[in-house]
Design a protein that fits this description.
The protein has about 550 residues and is of the alpha+beta class. About 50% of the residues lie in helices and about 20% in strands. The chain has a five-stranded antiparallel β-sheet. Strands 7-6-10-9-8 form a five-stranded antiparallel β-sheet, sandwiched between helices. The chain has a five-stranded mixed β-sheet with strand order 11-12-13-15-14, covered by helices on one side. A hairpin with a 5-residue loop joins strand 3 and strand 4. The chain has 17 helices and 15 strands. Helix 7 packs antiparallel against helix 12, helix 15 packs parallel to helix 16 and helix 16 runs antiparallel to helix 17. The protein has three domains: about 130 residues, PAS domain (Beta-Lactamase), CATH 3.30.450; about 160 residues, GAF domain (Beta-Lactamase, 2-Layer Sandwich); about 130 residues, 2-Layer Sandwich (Heat Shock Protein 90), CATH 3.30.565.10. It is elongated, with a radius of gyration of 48 Å.
Length: about 550
Amino acid sequence: MTIVPNKFSLFSVSKTVNANNASNTTSAWNSEEGLKLLLESAPMAMLMVGYEGRILFVNVKAVEMFGYSRQELVDQKVEMLIPDRFRHNHVQHRENYVEEPHSRPMGIGLELSAKRKDGTEFPIEVGLSTVNLKDEFVTIATVYDVTIRKQAEAELERRVEERTHELERRRQVSDGLRDILTVLNSDRSSGETLNYIVAQASRLLNADASAIYQLQDDNDIILTIQTSQGLPDDYIAWGKRGLDKGINSQAVLTRRPVAVSDLSQQLQNGGDVGSKSRWSLLVTHGYHAVLAVPLIVKEEVYGSLVLYYSQPREFPKESIELAVTFADQVALAIENARLRTQVEQAAIVAERNRLARDLHDSVTQTLFSASLIAEVLPKLWNRRHSEGERRLEELRQLTRGALAEMRTLLLELRPSRLIDVGLSELLRQLTEAVTGRARVPIDLQLEGECSLLPEVQIALYRTAQEALNNVAKHSQASRVEVKLICRPDYVKLSVKDDGRGFIRENVQANSLGLSIMHERAEAIDARLEINTEVGQGTEVSLTWINNKQ
């Protein structure tokens, strides 16, 4: 504890005191010897200081506290008990106090620093009082060594600071893990997710670098760097060759975290040639402590999460547990990536199966019918020329329909084409495909030029596709009309047939694609209308209003 300059004095005297206080004290003690006897018997250090700041008396406790003999202290300036750097300020304060006494309650505690004979400093607390002794006012100082209390306060402050730091660190870790879960549930690629996790691991575990290693060979334990954060390029190149087999291999083999607190110490302690070579390489790259945690995915070892530190350090249980938590997050990200790949592959297989069915139901059957007509056409041409011409026209429609159907299927394989190609051209290909497949003439009418938002164009095309599919499968129509009207403020699509119609109340909600068409309309805030009567055909119309006009 240090003195605050010009604020408090260790020992002060005053020329004048409250008359009542002086009178009371004098009446209690009529002799100097009586006062000294009282001070000597006190259980704490006591000093009597005269008008000019010289020590008049010290008790045995003060002698023990400061390490001086009684003879060495008496008649010396009281500043000898104060550290050198504070003496001048103390003298100035004491002299000012003598001229203009401060008004303060008796016994107030002043926290200061004192100095022993051997030069050591220690914190003290001082209480002051003034008495009238033989017509001279002297100051009596009560001095307490508060070293133990200060040490306890410092220890308590240190613990509070550590606890506060730990709570803040736990909060950061909690936020970091929450952010990782958010990333895991996003549509980021597995590479982006793993890069994010290793970056978070380095930050929250105070590591200078981190890396995820993947096990390539179970028998030889070959591990290669899959992603890293903060590692130098030459070390990454070395790690990608599968040469890092030391600490990583041990973590993978034991399925337990492996920590090395001081690689330089490990080198001095010896070890096998291979281990010393790998430890030396890490030290050469500036890493002196390493923590490796195995990555377990579905009960199988995938690889390891490794944290690198530039300075030697201990790895407490909590740090290792936190590293294991991050390893679990990495394993979860890897498993999610695997599941996503499986889903994508399943979707690809399903799409292939759908295209195969569509090819069989449409193009294959159309081409089979075309081949039958082509076989009989030469005979019909010679025998019945008019029938031959009719069959030739039918063959032309079938082949055009098959070609249009193939174009439509190619569009399905490349959804971006549904945006790149104009809606008029899309409807032309679609109607030709349905004509070839269902052998129903379709009258396509286009009014105006459409420049639509991607989502609006796709919704209109899908609605027309679903409506024409229903015509081909269910309507038994002899003629169909598809009409597209494009205006600056609205777009209207209608598909009308002269088929058998249906009773809407008797149709399930998910039949005839009604639910699909309603969803398409709601997605773009359009109005869908379906008008039908039994025996009178069906008309499906979709109207989209351009509210930006």
